[in-house]
Amino acid sequence: MPYSIGIVGLTNAGKSTIFSALTSIKVPCEAYPFCTIDPNRGLVAAPDPRLQKLAELIKPEKVLPAAIEFVDIAGLVKGAHKGEGLGNQFLAEIRAVDAIAEVIRCFENAEVSHPEGSLDPARDAETVLFELMQKDLETAEKRLDKAQKMLRVGEKSAQLEADLCAKMKTALEQLQTLDRLSYHEDELPILREMKPLTMKKRFFIANLGEEALSGQNLWLQKLEAYAAGKGIKVAPFYGKVEAEVHELDKSEQELFLKEMGIERSGLLEVIRAGREILDLVTFYTAVGGKELRNWLVPRSATAPVAAGKIHTDFESGFIKAEVITFEDFVRLGGEAAARKQGAVRVEGKDYLVQDGDIIHFRFKPKIV
Ligand SMILES: Nc1nc2c(ncn2[C@@H]2O[C@H](COP(=O)(O)OP(=O)(O)O)[C@@H](O)[C@H]2O)c(=O)[nH]1
Ligand SMILES: [Mg+2]
User: Fold this and answer.
1) Quick check: CB of 112 below 6 Å from ligand 1?
2) What pLDDT digit, counting tens, does each position of 287-339 carry?
3) How far apart are CA 147 and CA 149, in angstroms?
4) Ligand 1 atom with minimal separation from the 238 CA
5) CATH number at residue 154
6) In angstroms, what is the span from residue 223 Cα to ligand 2's centroid?
7) Closest C-alpha to 133, from 88, 71, 198
8) Does the C-beta of 240 come closer than 6 Å to ligand 1?
9) Which of 9, 270, 305, 338 is placed for a possible disulfide with 301 were both Cys, Cβ 3.0 to 4.6 Å?
10) What average pLDDT does the chain have?
11) Ligand 2 centre and the CA of 202: distance in Å?
12) Is 181 in the same domain as 209?
């Protein structure tokens, strides 16, 4: 499964505009046979200059880039946790994603109403956060209730969950997010099942208007000041401009953005922020020189876990990984030369995959 990032924010913040700008770069679906056809979901190839470099050297028949899935989650309104607007439905969608990209309106446009009547990035961010906290509070209270009932009928094993939920409830009532608490190892299985919203990694997308291209953007500055205080990353994104740019030919896009004064596309900023907060590294495979692919795995992934990304049989039957660094591969000019020069390392099951590794997995095929 690709990593998924949910686009969350207040009504008219520009979520759908940004979603359409992000997903205009289509990914071939063949790499993701399970991918569903849903207008609110889109796979985006993570731009990767190293993949291009390897493709030039290997000249494979196919290049399949790793994708990140973006989900345009229906608008969040004040009171959503109580079922206002689409309420609970979108909160369930947020629960399912790996990270949250929170679109904050930083564009001025008198024709597009703001649900609160005025621009104020910090207030909007707080409104969204409050809804997420309220939803977690409701979940914690429900589970606490259930655990207490079980304790009353002598089910002692419910004590752990009761204590955990009570701790969460207290924190949330004091407007503290759940990522600020420390947890015991025993509590982790419950957390994995609960998937609290305020434990999700998140970053802001500042949706900038055309007016921000000329001169300073007060709203971006305000959002950055707020985000810095909380240690949250901000990805600037000229939503409307970039959504329109993607209607042009690929060759014209970059030029157009440069002429507009946009140095880095919002797409790159968002992918970078997403990779950073999920703490992912990229490794490469080039099966028989025919199919070159890159893969995203958590920084602490061991070789068998990385192999399991490709195929579950690869994980269970893992024997060893033959690893070449990207630098060696490029410097020596390919796999054959790297082998000759002794630049291929053989690594076992405890090896932690490093960013840029080119890996050939050896595994025992499963006998069926
Ligand atoms: N001027 C301007 N309008 C924008 C920008 N981003 C979005 N809009 C407009 O704001 C309205 C709401 O945007 P939409 O993406 O549907 O917001 P959503 O409710 O968060 O999905 C649309 O009419 C967009 O064209 C922007 O950067 N500049
Ligand atoms: Mg929308």
Assistant:
1) yes
2) 888 999 999 999 999 999 999 998 877 888 899 999 999 999 999 999 999 99
3) 5
4) 27
5) 1.10.150.300
6) 21
7) 198
8) yes
9) 305
10) 90
11) 19
12) no
